[in-house]
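User: Can you write out an input/output pair for a complex, sequences first and structure second?

Assistant: Here is one pair. Inputs:
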Amino acid sequence: MRFQLIGLNHKSAPLEVRERLAIPESRLPDTCRELAAYPGIEEGMVISTCNRVEVVTHTVNGSADLRGFLHDHFHLKAEELDAHLYEFREKDAVRHIFRVAASLDSMVVGEAQILGQVKEAYATARAVGACRGQLDQLFSRAFAVAKRVRTETAVGSSSVSIASVAVELAKKIFGTLQGKNVFIVGAGKMSELAARHLMAHGCASIFVANRTYDRAIGLAQKFNGQAIKFEDLYNTCDKADIVITSTGAPHAIFRKEHGEQFLSRRKNKPMFFIDIAVPRDVSPEMAKLDGIFAYDIDDLQQAVSSHVADRRKEAERAEAIIASEVERFEARLHTLDVVPTIVSLQDHLETIRQAEIDRVRGRMGQLTPEQEMAVEALTRGIINKVMHTPITTLKTAARESEATTVVDVVRRLFNLQVKEGSVPKKDEVGIRH
Amino acid sequence: MSLLWLRFALGCYFIGLIYAFVALTRTSDLFSRIALHAASLGMVFHFVSLTELFLSGQVVWASVHNGESLLAFLSMSFFMIIYAIYHTTSPGVVVFPVVFFLTFVGAVDEQPVLLTQFVSHKGWLIAHIILIFTGYAALVLSFGASLLYLIQERRLKSKKPTSLISFLPALEVIDQIGYRSLLLGFPFMTLGLLTGSVVALTTYGHVDFLDPKILLSLLMWAVYMIMVFTRWNSGWRGRRAAFLATFAFVAALAAWAANYFSTIHRFAS
């Protein structure tokens, strides 16, 4: 296991450093090729997102000059870059990759985007031949681990932004948002963002009312919606299922009597008010009415904080999964280290067996098919018994630090030459029948 | 033998009963799946029990225990239809305990309590029983839905970001379940009462409107109708709808209890 990783992310480097290292998608294949051809590197891959740039490699002897690669590639001096870099080797590199793919190292822990970005980077590196054996294994496992983390923990299940909490609450009230109408009262940036989220989840149409009518028209046009004059607000508001309100009014603009009017006109169908104005636009008395659900900025923020705390708790469980997966991956790689020796041993003894049968065949005379089978079974049985102990010892040693010594001893004892590319799948290694 | 199958069904419904209590405190997908499968298996046993009863050819349909067993089966059928449409097991919180209780009462005793009067038109009687029980089952469900609506409404109003009772579906989905059950149950209940009147007329030659059974049944029907009307006309939901649904449910229980002191609709051991 000679993995080596270097990089920087949102925690280690400010945006101005990250943007200097960001690699556009079009240049990623060339960078991967350049990396794979760099001295001391067998395989290489580059992950470049807005929050991180990482170079992941499998090296020839476990120690390649990755800092040198970054300096050369980005034409940056050591003092400009090195303070922001982190570097991981072997097991730590594996853990880091697993954590990145499982979104535990992300700015918003549990966000789903990073897995897709890592998959794209992997596909690019594979396409140019920079990621073949060991890195291939590492990333295939990382994707499986990310999937396991997502299924077994709730690390990515809750919303952690005001806009997505609003969508989640709307779904708790209406089930589906298909065909629901949204009313924006007061054209602010945050209302626009929440409305965009709601529209993305299937809301049908948007009405916009603003004290400055021109601004209402401007925002309505963005969503293909309808601008409403502010004085018509109370006559039209009941058409909306979801109202996002953020006016700068000094008093509540939605009071109990308005709520009663709306509900009566809507035949008591529920209405959801997202009140992001300070001071609040929806009076507490109106919020108490049956069928009116009003969430102010504090309520939404509280939901976000609680979800963030939930994610943190789930992230702890995810870390435990990652730790066990790193151990498993390491053990699997060690097993693969001894596989070529096992295959050579099997081939070696099989060659001896065949040679011995051929040698004595003349002396045995003509054999019946049954006798042929008996000879075959007898010789194969002897070979299997001879091989059993060395193979078991090799497999056991693979899980421990003495693997190299044991492999060496077995090779010397049987005078084995390991052939290139003789690494079969894990299931193929064992006693032949 | 019919009773044995019913007891098997009871065992399966018991898992549903436990689910109903567990679901109130925490959410478990695995447990809701187990409860759903147990309830389905219970329905198979229950169906076999009812079929055997029917094939036995006795006039045991008009017994208290078999009536309760039929009502339990119909309530469970409604639950399954709702599950098929909305993919939610949350109405089970109300339906499972009711079904368990009804099946339990039906499964404990070998001796059915029979209708004391001789009835000449068996076909009308069977139609009356099936129709009225379908109406009852729908009422149980809309009652359950109105309670769940209240719980979900309170939860959304409290604004506490807790995962407690988060198994509940969206407010509008619960509302639809309740309203559709109401709409579906009403014609059954109406036709059930009409066929009951036909049975009474052919047996006694007249309908005694002062009999407690008839009075309470009419009261239940009237509340049922008010529920449908207020919902259709003014969209009553939440507290008011739950209040009416509870009233209708209590009226239905009272109408059922009237079997023990009615002169024309009496059961005895």
